[in-house]
């Protein structure tokens, strides 16, 4: 905003069509088309000011940036805050909405500079307030850092460690219980789902760094659910029956 030439006329801040288009990231033609198609929705003096003739010449002499007005321009539209708002609604893009908010906050409604006190007591109170504000900002930064640390995700290397632990656990169960290949996918699915449910993540890559050790401990102690155990028993029974029938 600090690079934008501030135009103050009629006791208000205004924007040229070129400035408005640049800020909304559209062409001047789009701004002009909006206006020409919806002239009945714009009121002169409320949404815009039109400078022509002597008024335009005075304006050219008034501004320090000669690029604000074309050399041979016979008229100039200057948009008020309400006019800029109306254009952002007509453009309807996320960029236009976001940029109008910034224009409203930083251009049309500039923050007033606080008055510097001229007494020792006033200066002391000002210093105290500044110190309190600084401490508050430090506290907010600390809170954000704690939040970032709390929600930091595991690294790719840590995910690989968890994946290997899952694989090792499934293979160990299959070996100990003499289970065949047809059971492995069932165990992998059961263990993977258990991890996601317990640690409230959509996949293992979203596990939080603070839970890394807990996940490894859980995998090490994990046992298949009762439903999975029953399905395994059914599969094993069917295999035994098939073997006996041969």
Entry keywords:
10 helices; 246 residues; 2 domains
Quick take:
Helices cover 63% and strands 7% of the residues. By secondary structure, it is α+β, with helices and mostly antiparallel strands. It folds into two domains: 7-108, no CATH class; 156-235, no CATH class.
Describe the structure.
- The protein is α+β, with helices and mostly antiparallel strands.
- It has two domains: 7-108, no CATH class; 156-235, no CATH class.
- It contains ten helices and four strands.
- Strands 1-2-4-3 form a four-stranded antiparallel sheet.
- The longest helix is centred in the middle third of the chain and has 31 residues, at 120-150.
- It is elongated and about 110 Å long.
Number of domains: 2
- Backbone shape: elongated
* Count of helix runs: 10
Q: Would you report the number of β strands?
A: 4
- What sequence of helices (H) and strands (E) makes up the elements? EEHHEHEHHHHHHH
Radius of gyration: 34 Å
Please summarize the sheet with the most strands: 4 strands, antiparallel
Low-confidence stretches: none
* Share of residues in helices: 55-70%
Side-by-side strand order of the widest sheet? 1-2-4-3
- Please identify the structural class as seen in this structure: alpha+beta
What is the first-to-last residue Cα distance? Answer: 85 Å
Provide mean pLDDT, rounded: 80
**Percent of sequence in beta strands:** 5-15%
């Amino acid at each position: 905003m600090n690079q934008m030439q501030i135009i103050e006329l009629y006791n208000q801040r205004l924007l040229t069509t070129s400035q408005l288009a640049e800020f909304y990231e559209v062409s001047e033609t789009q701004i002009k088309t909006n206006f020409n198609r919806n002239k009945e929705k714009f009121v002169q003096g409320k949404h815009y000011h039109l400078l022509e003739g002597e008024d335009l010449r005075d304006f050219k002499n008034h501004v320090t940036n000669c690029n604000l007005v074309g050399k041979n321009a016979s008229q100039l539209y200057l948009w008020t805050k309400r006019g800029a708002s109306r254009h952002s609604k007509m453009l309807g893009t996320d960029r236009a909405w976001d940029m109008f908010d910034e224009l409203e906050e930083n251009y049309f409604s500039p923050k007033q500079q606080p008055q510097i006190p001229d007494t020792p007591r006033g200066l002391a109170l000002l210093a105290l307030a500044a110190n309190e504000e600084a401490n508050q900002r430090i506290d907010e930064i600390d809170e954000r850092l704690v939040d970032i640390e709390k929600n930091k995700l595991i690294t790719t290397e840590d995910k690989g460690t968890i994946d290997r632990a899952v694989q090792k656990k499934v293979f160990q169960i299959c070996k100990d219980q003499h289970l065949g290949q047809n059971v492995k996918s069932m165990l992998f699915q059961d263990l993977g789902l258990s991890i996601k449910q317990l640690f409230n993540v959509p996949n293992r890559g979203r596990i939080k760094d603070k839970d890394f050790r807990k996940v490894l401990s859980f995998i090490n102690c994990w046992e298949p659910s009762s439903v999975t155990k029953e399905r395994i028993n059914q599969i094993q029974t069917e295999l035994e029956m098939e073997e006996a029938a041969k």
